[in-house]
Amino acid sequence: MAVPKKRTSKSKKNIRKSAWKKKVEKQAIRSLFLAKYLLKTKPEDPAVEKLITRLNDTTPSENNQEEKGRM
Fold first, then answer.
1. Which N-terminal residues, if any, form the signal peptide (predicted)?
2. How far is CA 43 from CA 25, 30, 55, 57, in A?
């Protein structure tokens, strides 16, 4: 197993962390935009429509009960 020779500096660690956060933020914005778009417009794909109706029909408590039943 690979082991680092020396400790990574704080600045290098922070640079890597900020780069990761920028990627995550960009993806979160894309996901939010897509979700808003799908909720506002009528999707043509039946699979997407089925997913949206399933998400709208269930409440958070129902989702938790379904997950517990699977385990």
1. none
2. 26, 17, 14, 17
